[in-house]
Amino acid sequence: MTPITEVEGRRLALSNLEKVLYPATGFTKGEVLHYYATTAEVLLPHLRDRPVSFLRYPDGHDGQVFFTKNVPPGTPGWVTTAEVPRVEGPARMVLVQDLASLMWAANLVTEFHTPQWVIGAPGEADRLVFDLDPGAPASVVECCEVALWLRERLAADGIEAYAKTSGSKGLHLTAAIRPAPSGRASDYARELAVRAERDLPRLAIHRMTRSLRPGKVFVDWSQNAARKTTAAPYTLRARPEPAVSAPVTWTEVEECRSPAALGFTAPDLPPRIQDHGDLLAPLLDPARAGTLP
């Protein structure tokens, strides 16, 4: 029988709680749900008012993995949804606004991905993001070098950047900006990525061409486009182990000397949150948003 639980007055059917989703550590679906329940206080503010795309992996990373952007069949009527404009026509997407919605979505076994804009102003970016993706043998260590370069350049333009792990091999840099057209944010991010390749020719590349990427860090500026999404802070990822896209301090970035130094899994996050709080909390403060030059 599927267990029924109540979350904030909403009845939820939680299924297959003993199912192992992360074979490298034996981490179960029940533990996934527990992780999201215990990190909801810091996760939800970064999801709220942003249409969520789900990367679902109901049988683990080595099973079927697929994106869901439209409202999934069977979504409860109390889950908030909104119409979202798209090039191919409007779609209705989920907004994860509260703990009950978060736990319903977590029961689908998903990564959470969000755009750089809120539902009230689609296509008006209030976030700037760089996805730093290393090409082997480069690793997150090289990503940290590029991140520090980007941090300085952004600061020179009055934009304060924050870092989080991707939950895979790389690093994400993100900053709060005063709302601006996504195209303008993309252009600015691309200019910085081009400068990074020029100033760090042995380390950084702004082009996606696979043959150019071994040993370098791809500075992916394209996720600033209105149609693109990025893995949300604190989301679990579809990996062999329960890897998390975890916020990190700039000291950790500066001192990173091995990939293991910035590899975080679900059990690591509660003590980190207790020690640091939400390291990305400044992104939620409009007064700290920078202005694109």
Quick summary:
The chain is of the alpha+beta class and 293 residues long.
What does this structure look like?
- It holds the Pfam family LigD_Prim-Pol.
- One of its GO terms (molecular function) is ligase activity.
- This is DNA ligase.
- This protein is of the alpha+beta class and 293 residues long.
- It has two domains: 4-114, DNA primase, PRIM domain (Alpha-Beta Complex), CATH 3.90.920.10; 124-288, Alpha-Beta Plaits (2-Layer Sandwich).
- 26% of the residues lie in helices and 25% in strands.
- The chain contains six helices and 16 strands.
- The chain has helices at 29-47, 99-106, 140-156, 182-199, 250-255, 269-276; strands spanning 4-7, 10-13, 20-22, 27-28, 51-56, 66-68, 81-84, 91-95, 110-114, 124-134, 161-165, 171-181, 204-205, 217-220, 230-231, 247-248.
- Strands 5, 6, 7, 8, 9 and 15 form a six-stranded antiparallel sheet that branches. The chain has a six-stranded mixed sheet with strand order 13-14-10-12-11-16.
- A hairpin with a 6-residue loop joins strand 7 (81-84) and strand 8.
- It is globular.
- The protein starts with a strand and ends in a 17-residue tail after the last helix.
Which stretches of 5+ consecutive residues score pLDDT under 50? none
How far apart the termini lie comes to 58 Å
Broad shape: globular
CATH T-level fold name of the largest domain: Alpha-Beta Plaits
Strand content: 15-25%
CA gyration radius, whole angstroms: 19 Å
Number of separate strands: 16
**CATH architecture term of the largest domain:** 2-Layer Sandwich
Largest sheet: 6 strands, antiparallel
Give the helix tally.
Answer: 6
Indicate the percent of residues in helices: 25-40%
Q: Which whole number gives the mean pLDDT?
A: 95
| Domains (count) | 2
GO molecular function, one term: ligase activity
Protein name: DNA ligase
Pfam families: LigD_Prim-Pol
Keywords: Ligase
